[in-house]
Design a protein that fits this description.
Distance between the termini: 18 Å
CATH architecture of the largest domain: 3-Layer(aba) Sandwich
Number of domains: 2
Helix content: 25-40%
Number of strands: 17
Radius of gyration: 25 Å
Strand content: 15-25%
Length: 378
């Protein structure tokens, strides 16, 4: 997911050969080097004990590295006052950690109050953030955490982390404690939110599907905090760097790949078009094929089959109306839409212009083509 809109408001994070070894000799993170560009989401994923949370906690100095350096916009965080550093970083955890005896508004206002904001500015910021995370201020500001659902508490946790507008957001399995339906909605809301605020996000999860959906880049770690691969999700799925990555991504790699490859990569079929106001009987005159794309002022609005075009009525009366799919949409989205229609192909548009038809065959071929390709981005 690449952020869109205005320039990123996040900060660049660089980890340079960071290592964390405890007194008993246990190595939690081993010589980890990676960078997170401003405004991007980097997801750390791997099995339990691979150092994901330790890495995150070193970024805000809840854990001090044994060696190596971490830089935030060029500043070595080891030389920065901890309090000043944490004012630049929002933190969201799975358990949320809301203060139970404070209202939603007071929870969100915690950091602004510590920073000495006046009441008017604080109230305005609380209202703005509740709206940003999809909670109505009039309805939720005066409620207490126990009166909220798990998903609502998680939204409040995100709002609190964003209260002082920090450039960096650390998120440690933030959606792991909610049910699957709420989790899916929270992920979608988070992506919508990121398009607006464009923070630099380090996100920890054990769920590969979540990592692929949310990450601009995904870091796969194994036990001992060893980095196996740090890549764009599509590259991770199509070209696993090691056997460990291939095994961790798992047998569902082909299905996951559908979610990170766009329809534009498919070999689209060139179905002929017919105007919605033409007569159905003439829709197939002088051209082969069993299907036509129905257009209205050049934009696809449905399809019509040869068997349905045998009466002296307009195409409009015989067509099957459906929505075209964008060339920028994922193959997964296109396949789901195609299966729900019962037709052999879906019209594809780019900048509102019809560019071809995606079929189940072309979608599968695009996924296989990506799997067989060994090309990697620089």
């Amino acid at each position: 997911m690449q952020p869109t809109g205005s320039d990123a408001s996040g900060s660049m994070i660089v980890l340079d050969r960071v290592r964390k070894q405890y007194a008993d000799g246990t190595v939690a993170v081993n010589e980890l080097s990676l960078d997170v560009a401003a405004g991007q989401i980097a997801v750390l994923v791997g099995p339990s004990g691979c150092g994901k949370t330790t890495t995150m906690r070193m970024i805000n100095r809840l854990v001090e590295p044994s060696s190596g350096r971490i830089y935030l916009d060029g500043d070595d965080i080891g030389t920065v006052d901890r309090v000043q550093l944490r004012r630049r970083i929002g933190y969201v955890i799975q358990q949320v950690g809301l203060f139970p005896h404070q209202t939603v508004a007071d929870n969100i206002a915690t950091v602004p109050q510590l920073l000495g904001w006046d009441k008017k500015r604080t109230r305005s910021r609380v209202s703005e953030l509740l709206d940003l995370v999809g909670l109505e201020a009039d309805r939720h500001a005066k409620r207490y955490p126990h009166e909220l659902s798990g998903g609502q508490r998680q939204r409040v946790g995100v709002a609190r982390a964003l209260a002082a507008d920090p450039p960096v957001l650390l998120m440690d399995e933030p959606f792991g404690a909610v049910d699957p339906i709420a989790r899916d909605r929270l992920q979608a809301e988070f992506l919508r939110l990121q398009e607006q605020v464009r923070k630099t996000v380090v996100f920890v999860t054990h769920d590969m599907d979540e990592a692929i959906r949310l990450g601009d880049r995904v870091a796969v770690l194994r036990q001992g905090g060893v980095l196996e691969q740090y890549d764009d999700p599509a590259v991770l799925l199509t070209s696993p760097a090691t056997d460990f990555v291939a095994e961790f991504v798992g047998a569902r790699r082909t299905l996951r790949r559908l979610s990170v490859i766009s329809v534009a990569s498919a070999d689209l079929h060139n179905w002929a078009t017919v105007d919605v106001d033409e007569m159905a009987a003439g829709a197939f005159a002088g051209a082969g094929g069993d299907w036509r794309v129905v257009v209205d002022s050049g934009r696809p609005i449905g399809v019509i089959s040869r068997t349905d075009a045998n009466d002296e009525v307009s195409v409009r009366e015989r067509m099957q109306r459906l929505s075209p799919v964008s060339a920028d949409a994922s193959l997964e989205f296109a396949l789901a839409a195609l299966l729900s229609t019962g037709v052999p192909g879906l019209p594809v548009i780019k900048d509102s212009r019809y560019v071809g038809v995606a079929t189940s065959e072309s979608i599968v071929q695009a996924a296989r083509g990506a799997e067989n390709s060994t090309a990697r981005e620089p």
